């Protein structure tokens, strides 16, 4: 019995309106680095479907940066801790952990020799600190000079060493060292300074602020050289990034545009990224031939300087927790739903994805099923909506339920939904049967193969078995659990029903008697079990839990199981589907999709 993680389809950067995010790349320009919640994502730039995740922070990570040597990554979190970890070994071994400031770290940078690190943020009076990477010892000097939190920091990549910081006090501070001493502040910005970045050759540094302005300064002495544009953008400048030859500058703005500036002439090439609020650009980075920007939606856009009207590609996905998953009948497409109302469709073979467009639920999507006439989703807006799988867009069909749906299930002739108040039977986009319930319905499953049986799980710790004939539900029997029923699934061969509950149990029932299979209740999870799924041959069951584990159970060997510990570290499992009898796909609260090969 064994398992192997085959792929990781990463989440997008976590964004927040009015807050810039920090991107970074490895020294070779092959890997993109960004944060999402307590995860650090390492993503291949040429093939974004290849990714790795670091999850050792216990709170939200705000920034992560490669050392110039490429051997280490330093990541800083909301509580002021930094972790320095190895990039060579797959285990990502911890080199050191320090707490240089007492509040959130918003940005950090390395010295060009990879020996020193400067962190900046909101440190309750101490806004920046420089320390040695290997010992944590403070580098002598004082980085005072600001009266409010520092948003951005940059270290001159060539000698003599210089550090520049940008703050919410609308000022840019310039330091010489080591030991670092305050030299001057620049008050050219009239609003928050959001980004400061040295050019690769160290000759200049650029600053951008919420006043829409970009200024260039001499790298060695901090003297103002010029302003780009007048102003550079109509909205706040969230990020700037230099070209490798230090001759051009890429800027990203809340006015929904990005611009490439020629440093000498001041001329620019403008990229209009869209018209919606979600198209605001909150970060950018220039690495080799790639110009990447991040929108408020989390989308990563690859700009094409030769064709500003059309990007090379756009990387989509989730940047909020995933709530559910469904697999198309031909096994080619995987659909995932999010707490923010988004739906993403993934190509199973390549990992490429696309966001479902059109007017969806606008908020939490609670369930998804796939039928011959479309993909159906239910949301907390009390409706079921339909996606056209060819157009990859909501087609306008909507079914009002009158109360909040918890889950929907499909039969050949109808859809059945369980809401907070009733069980609904839906045919031709209309409710043709409503059956009130006096307990909270949580999940539902329909038996296939022409059966008329439906199972509904409730917060009353019971699985209610019904028969559905002529739009009428008749309760057949109930199955007792010791916790609320959280998910259920009939086996593909219609011979079994598996149910899981909040009491950590997974129980398989044999049909038609609904007796417990092998008289064994599976109970190796440590917390509420969220989801269950059958393998195509009806021999294996996968269960995912709040305890971050996936467990594979076997009907033929009921006393044996495969435990995938920390399958989504620090994130609960929210959905499972089988691609084959040996490969299972999991989704998590971390917004990540993973696939696993299992051998029983």
Class inferred from helices and paired strands: mainly beta
Helix content: under 10%
For this entry, what is the oligomeric state of its chains?
single chain
The major β-sheet equals: 4 strands, antiparallel
**The CATH top-level class label of the domain at 2-315:** Mainly Beta
General shape: elongated
What spatial order of strands do you see in the largest sheet? 1-55-54-53
pLDDT < 50 stretches:
none
Bin the strand percentage: over 45%
Please give the alpha-carbon distance between the first and last residues.
Answer: 4 Å
Total number of helical segments? Answer: 0
Q: How many beta-strand segments?
A: 55
Q: What is the CATH topology descriptor of the domain at 2-315?
A: Methylamine Dehydrogenase, Chain H
Description of the structure:
The protein is mainly β and 600 residues long. Among the domains are: 2-315, Methylamine Dehydrogenase, Chain H, CATH 2.130.10.10; 499-600, no CATH class. It has no helices and 55 strands. It is elongated. The N and C termini lie close together (4 Å). Belongs to the WD repeat AIP1 family. This is Actin-interacting protein 1.
């Amino acid at each position: 019995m064994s398992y192997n993680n085959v792929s990781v389809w990463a989440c997008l950067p976590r964004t927040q309106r009015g807050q810039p995010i920090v991107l970074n790349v490895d020294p070779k320009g092959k890997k993109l680095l960004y944060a999402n919640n307590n995860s650090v994502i390492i993503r291949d730039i040429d093939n974004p479907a290849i990714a790795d995740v670091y999850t050792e922070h216990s709170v939200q990570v705000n920034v992560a940066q490669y050392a110039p040597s490429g051997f280490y990554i330093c990541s800083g979190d909301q509580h002021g801790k930094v972790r320095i970890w190895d990039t060579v070994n797959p285990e990502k071994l911890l080199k050191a952990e320090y707490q240089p400031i007492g509040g959130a770290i918003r940005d950090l940078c390395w010295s060009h020799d990879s020996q020193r690190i400067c962190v900046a943020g909101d440190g309750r009076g101490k806004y920046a600190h420089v320390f040695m990477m290997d010992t944590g010892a403070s580098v002598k000097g004082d980085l005072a000079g600001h009266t409010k939190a520092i948003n951005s920091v940059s270290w001159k990549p060539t000698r003599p060493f210089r550090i520049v910081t940008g703050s919410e006090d609308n000022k840019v501070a310039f330091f010489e060292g080591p030991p670092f001493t305050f030299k001057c502040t620049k008050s050219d910005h009239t609003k928050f300074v959001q980004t400061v970045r040295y050019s690769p050759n160290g000759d200049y540094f650029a600053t951008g602020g919420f006043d829409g302005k970009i200024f260039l300064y001499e790298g060695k002495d901090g003297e103002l050289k010029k302003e780009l544009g007048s102003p550079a953008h109509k909205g706040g400048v969230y990020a700037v990034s230099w070209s490798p030859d230090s001759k051009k500058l890429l800027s990203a703005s809340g006015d929904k545009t990005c611009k490439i500036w020629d440093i000498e002439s001041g001329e620019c090439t403008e990229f209009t990224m869209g018209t919606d609020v979600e198209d605001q650009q909150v970060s950018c980075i220039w690495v080799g031939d790639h110009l990447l920007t991040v929108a408020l939606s989390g989308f990563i856009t690859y700009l094409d300087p030769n064709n500003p009207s059309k990007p090379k590609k756009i990387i989509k996905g989730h940047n909020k927790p995933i709530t559910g998953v469904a697999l198309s009948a031909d096994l080619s497409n995987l659909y995932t739903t999010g707490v923010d109302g988004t739906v993403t469709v993934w190509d199973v073979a390549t990992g490429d994805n696309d966001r479902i467009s059109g007017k969806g639920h606008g908020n939490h999507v609670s369930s998804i099923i796939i039928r011959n006439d479309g993909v159906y989703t239910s949301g907390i807006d009390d409706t079921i909506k339909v996606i056209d799988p060819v157009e990859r867009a909501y087609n306008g069909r909507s079914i009002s339920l009158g109360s909040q749906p918890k889950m929907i299930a499909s039969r050949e002739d109808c859809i059945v939904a369980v809401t907070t108040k009733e069980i609904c039977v839906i045919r031709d986009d209309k409710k043709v049967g409503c059956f009130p319930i006096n307990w909270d319905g949580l999940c539902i499953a329909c038996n296939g193969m022409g059966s008329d049986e439906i199972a509904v799980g409730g917060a009353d710790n019971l699985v209610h078995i019904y028969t559905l004939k002529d739009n009428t539900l008749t309760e057949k029997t109930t199955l007792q659990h010791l916790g609320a029923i959280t998910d259920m699934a009939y086996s593909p061969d219609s011979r079994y029903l598996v149910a899981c509950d909040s009491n950590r149990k997974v129980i398989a029932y044999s049909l038609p008697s609904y007796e417990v299979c092998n008289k064994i209740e599976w109970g190796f999870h440590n917390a509420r079990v969220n989801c269950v799924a059958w393998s195509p041959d009806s021999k294996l069951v996968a269960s995912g839990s709040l305890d971050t584990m996936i467990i594979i159970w076997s009907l033929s060997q009921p006393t044996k199981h495969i435990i995938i510990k920390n399958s989504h570290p620090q994130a609960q499992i929210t959905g499972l589907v089988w691609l084959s009898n040996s490969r299972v796909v999991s989704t998590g609260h971390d917004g990540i999709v993973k696939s696993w090969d299992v051998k029983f």
